[in-house]
Design brief:
- By secondary structure, the protein is mainly β.
- It has a domain of 88 residues: Roll (Structural Genomics Hypothetical 15.5 Kd Protein In mrcA-pckA Intergenic Region, Chain A), CATH 3.10.290.
- 8% of the residues lie in helices and 37% in strands.
- The chain has 2 helices and 8 strands, in the order E-E-E-E-E-H-E-E-H-E.
- The strands form 2 sheets. The chain has a 5-stranded mixed beta barrel.
- It starts with 36 loop residues before the first strand and ends with a strand.
- The mean pLDDT is 90.
Amino acid sequence: MRKSVENLKTSKITGGIRHPLKSRRKFQTDRYPNEALMGDQVTVTRKTRGNNRKTSLKTASVVNLVLADGKIKNSEIVRVLENQTNNDYQRRGVITRGAIVETKDGKCKIVSRPGQDGTLNGILVK
């Protein structure tokens, strides 16, 4: 997805057409957001700036859940209850940071960024 150069729609005061001083560089281009959904776990690795890599989740079925005693347990996701990021995300069942998810062990809040980290970590909500 390529971002356009801003403020070229209006004409100059003389009536001429505005021309961009420079075009966009590769690092200035945007990407489509990676929205994690429910399903069998599928990860995607993307190249980023500086020859680094980002692993992101496309679909996930298990969350790493921190229990009350501090132990970590893999718990299966039943459904997405709330997502305050976006009402459309809540309707579609997209998992983002801060989403409330129902698991086999109870409600949990997602504290990791699945589109950036590639993992789903959560804490129990009372």
